[in-house]
Specification:
Helix content: 40-55%
Order of helices and strands: HHEHEHEEHHHEHEEHEEHEEH
Radius of gyration: 47 Å
Shape: rod-shaped
Strand order of the largest sheet: 6-8-9-11-10
Strand content: 15-25%
Largest sheet: 5 strands, mixed
Distance between the termini: 22 Å
Number of strands: 11
Length: 463
């Protein structure tokens, strides 16, 4: 089973939607990363701001109030302590100096005091903070959805009295938020709007192409082909215009050839008739019969050539009919009849006179060279199939296709005395191709030849 849609319109829609989905996914990842950085920066700024305020209060308050200020500033996530030694024991602590610069700006400090800051990620498989209560820590884990990548920020700020204010805080990377309902509703709404928009836009491209394909399938030597409407993008309009010009040239070429052949046939009838009359005046019987036979053969050749041209340029309208009933009527009309095996009802649209001629050519060949013709019909895979089989000598494999060329006859198996000028199968193939069908010859395993004629089913039958 093919998962890739065969329609150009669906392929382009799927491709665009897939590209948009990938682009949205990449954008979502990038936005999530920027969101993490923004949240971490906000939490870090909040901690540094509180630290700067605590420093201001301690340095302005009496020494006996320092411990109370520190206890009041403490929270479950930020701890303040005053000590003689700094917690951050190295100078090169802040990669870009942003934390230190922010604290100095808040304290209006011009590098008169030492400020040390260190921020790093730590293993947070234990409690987020060692001094959090177990219940609060568990709630914190649930809020973070198990994504406990913790960042620890430690500050050591020198106080005016020689002590150090040590600040410690930890915060986790925010979990990936996925509002399922909102995302689903947005995706469905955006997908529907995009699908409708692309479907409309692509219809302007694919609909003219579909009509062009249908017109190309129906294109034949018969006159009266439809002129396609010039619509769609510029490239499609140019293609439609080129097709209309090509179709017009083909029709004019066939019409000119038909007119030439008709004129030649008309002009040849008069001298052939005169030759026939004069040949009757020949006294020698053998010579007279030879001349008459030659004139009649020339007349037959002229009629066959005209018939071939008419078969290519026939503009007979199509009629919807039951294929079995059509073949039964043809069997009754033919002098020798043929064996017809009836099957299930098959509806086709065809040009009755042209199709009778095509079938008669093949059936008469089967009767002439194979004694008897057996005809079957069926609906095979959405196509009407007619098989005409005989029990004759068949045709050499290399010649199975060449016999459809005009004026080609097989001398080894089909003598000239049997009649015909090698145009019957050519006419038959031309008629079938005008019906969007075809004919194929094949030798039977047990001897004989089988002609397989295919026709499209009627449009109502296909639905």
């Amino acid at each position: 089973m093919r998962l890739v849609p065969q329609s150009l319109r669906l392929q382009i829609v799927c491709l665009v939607l897939a590209a948009l989905a990938v682009a949205q996914g990449v954008t979502l990842v990038l936005l999530e990363d920027q969101r993490n950085l923004a949240v971490r920066a906000a939490i870090g700024d909040e901690a540094t701001g509180r630290a700067a305020n605590v420093v201001r209060l301690i340095e302005k308050a009496p020494a006996n109030l320092h411990e109370q200020i520190v206890r009041a500033a403490n929270s479950p996530l930020v701890r303040f302590e005053i000590g003689a030694d700094p917690v951050v024991d190295h100078i090169s602590h802040d990669a870009r100096g942003t934390t230190e610069a922010r604290i100095r700006a808040l304290l209006d400090d011009d590098f008169s005091r030492e400020i040390r800051a260190e921020m790093h990620e730590i293993d947070s498989s234990a409690l987020p903070l060692p001094y959090l209560e177990p219940g609060m820590a568990e709630q914190h884990r649930e809020m973070m959805r198990g994504q406990m990548l913790t960042v620890e920020l430690e500050l050591s700020i020198a106080l005016a009295g020689g002590d150090w204010l040590n600040v410690s805080t930890r915060f986790e990377r925010p979990p990936f938020q996925w509002p399922r309902f909102a995302t689903l509703s947005f995706g469905l709404s955006a997908g529907f709007i995009l699908l409708a928009l692309f479907w409309y836009l692509l219809a302007r491209v694919t609909e003219p192409l579909r009509l062009l394909a249908e017109a190309a399938e129906k294109l034949g030597p018969e006159q009266g082909g439809p002129v396609l409407i010039n619509s769609g993008p510029r490239e499609v309009r140019e293609l439609v215009q080129a097709f209309n010009r090509m179709q017009d040239r083909i029709f004019r070429l066939v019409a000119e050839r038909t007119h030439i052949l008709a004129a030649m046939g008309h002009d040849l009838r008069s001298p052939l008739t005169a030759m026939r009359v004069r040949s009757e005046l020949v006294e020698d019987d053998e010579t007279r019969e030879s001349l008459i036979a030659s004139v009649e053969e020339m007349q037959h050749m002229v009629e066959e050539a005209l018939s071939f041209a008419r078969g290519l340029a026939d503009a007979e309208p199509e009629q919807r009919c039951d294929l079995g009933a059509f073949l039964e009527t043809l069997r009754q009309d033919m002098p020798n009849g043929y064996v017809l095996n009836h099957g299930r009802s098959v509806k086709v649209s065809l040009r009755p006179n042209a199709m009778r001629r095509a079938l008669r050519n093949v059936i008469e060949n089967a009767q002439r060279y194979g004694t008897e013709a057996e005809v079957t019909y069926a609906d095979e895979g959405g196509t009407a199939v007619i098989r005409i089989c005989d029990r004759g000598p068949g045709i050499p494999e290399p010649e199975l296709e060449r016999v459809f060329d005009p004026f080609v006859r097989l001398e080894t198996s089909r003598a000239r005395a049997t009649g015909g000028y090698g145009l019957g199968l050519s006419i038959t193939r031309g008629i079938l191709q005008a019906h969007n069908g075809d004919i194929v010859l094949s030798n039977l395993p047990d001897g004989g030849l089988c002609a397989t004629l295919t026709l499209p089913l009627d449009a109502a039958e296909r639905r």
